Structure formats: C-alpha cells, structure tokens
Amino acid sequence: LHDHAKVMIEDFDTDERFDLATLRMVAEHIADPPAVAKALSRLLLPGGRVIIFTVNRWSPITLISQAVPFSLHYPIKKFFWGGEEEDTFPVEYKMNTRKALQNLFAENGFVEESFAYLDDLSVFGHFKLMGYVELSLWRLINKLGLRYPENCLLGVYKKQ
After folding, report:
1. Is the pLDDT of residue 160 over 80?
2. Domain residues for 133?
3. For FRET with 100, which of 40, 41, 94, 124 sits at 20 to 30 Å CA-CA?
4. Is 114 left (phi over 0), alpha (psi -120 to 50) or beta?
5. Do the domain assignments include residue 4?
C-alpha cells in the first residue's frame, strides 16, 4: 500500500493483484491503449474496477489542441490554467470517447459499470468576466436541454 513504482503500467510487474486502478487525466496521453488495458486486466482482481477521468475527444479544447503544434501547448496551457512545462505531455486521444473505452475494456474482460459526461467550466476560470460568460452560456445550454460542449468523461469498468 505504501510502495511506489515509477514505471509504465504495461511494464509493471508484481505478484500482487488490486481491486482498484485510477486513471485521472492520463488516458489522453496513452499511445498504446490495448497494452494498457491488457496490463490493467492482468493486475486487477476479478470484480476489480478501473475508474477513468479524462477529456472528451470531441470537446472544443481537445479539438484545438490537436490542431495546434505541440511546441505551443505549454504557452497556451500556462496562459489559461498555469502549470509547469515539465507537466505538459504529448497527447494521443485514443481512449477519449465512450465507445473507444467500452470496446477497449470489453476486449480485455471488463464491463462498463457506469459512465457520465461531466461539464468542464474551467477554461476561463482565471478570467472573471470570461468565466461569468462561460457560466451564463452553460446555464443557457442546460435550459435548452443540450449537452455543454466542453466536457470530460468519467467511466467505471468492472473486471469480470
């Protein structure tokens, strides 16, 4: 419980099995999703769960990040959200739709236990006026019964 390992999960080797694995804002960076899902299946006990919280492949910020050269990701990220350059990683977006997650985990012995789209109102959080505009837009979109376009995915997958 208190051991630490700094290794890619595909290379993590232990005789222990776990009942929970979490991927928080990690899935968008994974280059080989099948290898990761296979490793998770190997490492989890039957009935164990994987909880994934990640950006939606089709959200506006995600689409913009794909169009912008990686060399500009950090300056843009720093302007909107702060952070350090060492915390800016290349993105793949191979595990960033519900369908991709369902298929990937089903192929590795998991079933989707729950799933939600979570609205993300953090884009303009550092800019009071723009934050207010974003919140007002969110309220309007919700009143119209539509899904807010900037959202994240939260999925729970149970190993059979």
Report:
1. yes
2. 9-159
3. 124
4. beta
5. no
